Amino acid sequence: MTEEKREAIRRFLPSPELKLPEGFSSSGYFIIKGKVEKSLVEEISRAKNEPEWMLKLRLKALEAYERLRFPNWVVGVEELNIDEIAHYVRPDAGLARSWEDIPEDIRKVYESLRLPEAEKRALAGISFQFESETVYLGIKKLLEEKKVIMLPMEEAVQRYPDIVKQYFNKIFPYAEHKFAALHTALWSGGVFVYVPKGVRIPQPVEAFFFMASALEGQFEHTLLIADENSEIQFIEGCSAPMYKRYSFHDGMVEIYAHRGSKVKFVTLQNWSGNVINFNNKRAIAEDNSTVQWLEGSVGSRVSYVYPSTILRGDNSRTSIYTVSISNGKKLKDTGAKIIALGKNAAGKIVSKSISANGGTNIYRGLVRISKGSMNTVVSSSCDSLILDRESKSLTYPHNQIEEETASVSHEAKTGTISEEHLFYMRSRGLTEGEAKSLMVLGFLEDVLVDIPFEMASVLNSVVQLEFSKIGGTG
User: Fold this and answer.
1) What pLDDT digit, counting tens, does each position of 8-18 carry?
2) For position 225, what pLDDT does the model report?
3) Which has the closest alpha carbon to 156: 232, 48, 256, 281?
4) Residue 342: which of 263, 285, 426 has the closest Cα?
5) How many C-beta atoms surround the C-beta of residue 222 within 10 A?
6) Least confident of 83-92, 305-314, 392-401
7) CA-to-CA distance for 105 and 22, rounded, in angstroms?
8) pTM here?
9) What is the spatial distance between Cα 229 and Cα 200, in angstroms, rounded to a whole number?
10) pLDDT, tens digit, for every residue of 79-127?
11) Which has the closest alpha carbon to 261: 312, 190, 210, 308?
12) Separation of CA 273 from chain center
């Protein structure tokens, strides 16, 4: 693999074997931990100096968390004990607007991720969250000139309360399930982005989330509002070093795409192999708007992620691509949801999963066409590639069609690597890992041609790196 390709991987998907700088210590950080109860939630809110309305929302979510049952679809998290983790970890650093103002030990982490270079080269804006707080926010002049608002979520709560109250937890309500309620009760960090009417941002903005400690919970909340006829691309990156014990991620993304707007949201997740990952993601699309999701899941021990779009408006559009790799004893429970309410809406779901070395992939999909959503068309395809006898893939699609003029299609395919093809490629001088990576890339081809070139290059490189580890295993 060329150094250019390796740099592309470092740029968006740092290695889960990432090491913290020598001498790094979080011993001086402000930490809130203990049983999840009213006093703990109040302490988090007090530490953030929040307005009363946000505290009330947190406490309502806490009541729902205590009332709701543990989801019966969640497995593989037996080690998880919510009451033993740190729910809020504030590093000894304020919000910086220049690299020089970030404490040296934290700055070295981000330099090792190559993120300062990425900001200069490719991004209109970038936010870095370390533990539970945003420590750096870089916004280029372009965003300021176009009056785009990009702030840490806590600052948006203080400065733009009317806008935040209109959307926060309205797109993905806390009462949907126990982990959504837990997130709302404990949320900290994340990004608020508002794109004014008619504004189109040619370069993407990025938020990067990093957990440095074991037995830590990260609960960032991202809220993205695209006003009428605006356009933006948002990239979310996630990473963490290896720990001796687990850490827990329970984030949320809410997107509101107003009439005629276009939003593209890309997640490239490479948590280390002892992170338990939940992510609650939903968008609402109004008339003639378009929402595109790309969920690339490589790391973590266990992941539960289902990007979803509510096609509320007439002629609204969505596409949801999920690429999930379970290489080793990992469980990826991913999928997508489309709920159509408007007329002449259209949606597409494309799921690609690769299971190797005992990995498990599960697809859960929901397509719901409500009565009155006339002439709506939704297609979904779920393709699984299994590389050995120890790995497996399961598919659970669910379609609810209440409108007779709608057209819904679903197809699913599961395949294995041909031993004949593998033998042929190895006879031409390729290692087993190289041969398998080429076959996997062929399997992903129809996804790679439909996503931005830069993202396709990264996924291409990630696959090559991931399967170069296979070596002589079967």
Assistant:
1) 444 444 444 55
2) 98
3) 48
4) 285
5) 23
6) 83-92
7) 9
8) 0.89
9) 8
10) 889 999 989 888 776 677 676 666 766 666 666 655 555 555 556 777 7
11) 312
12) 16
In 3D, which of 268, 241, 203 has the Cα closest to residue 457? 268
More confident residue, 95 or 391: 391
Identify the bridge partners of residue 350 per DSSP, sorted by sequence position: 321, 381
CA neighbours closer than 13 Å in the CB half-sphere of residue 416: 11
Cα–Cα dist 436/425, whole Å: 9
Residue 364 near residue 335 (C-beta atoms within 8 A) = yes
Burial class (CB in 10 A: 0-12, 13-18, 19+), 138: buried
Q: What is the dihedral of CA 86, 305, 56, 129, to 10 degrees?
A: 50
Q: What is the pLDDT of residue 13?
A: 46
Task: Kindly state the average pLDDT of the residues 132-149.
Answer: 82
The residues, ordered by sequence, that sit 6+ positions from 331 with a Cβ below 8 Å of its Cβ are 75, 76, 301, 302, 303, 359, 360, 362
- pLDDT at residue number 97: 67
Phi, psi of 29 (to 5 degrees): -75, 155
Name the pairing type of β-strands 407-416 and 377-386.
parallel
Q: What is the pLDDT of residue 412?
A: 86
Most confidently predicted of 115-119, 199-203, 249-253:
249-253
The mean pLDDT value of the chain amounts to 84
Residues 6+ apart with CB under 8 A from 411: 380, 381, 382
Q: Residue 381 phi/psi, 5° resolution? A: -135, 140
Q: Under DSSP, is residue 466 helix (H, G, I), strand (E, B) or coil?
A: helix
- With beta carbons less than 8 A apart as the criterion, state whether 218 and 246 touch: no
Show the tokens assigned to 323.
């690429």
Interior/surface letters 352-367, b for 16+ CB within 10 angstroms, e for the rest: bbbbbbebbbbbbbbb
| Residues in the chain, total | 474
In contact, 371 and 400? CB cutoff 8 Å? no
Note the pLDDT of residue 5: 45
Q: Are 243 and 213 in contact (CB under 8 A)?
A: yes
C-alpha 127/C-alpha 260 separation (Å) is 27
Amino acid residing at 424: Y
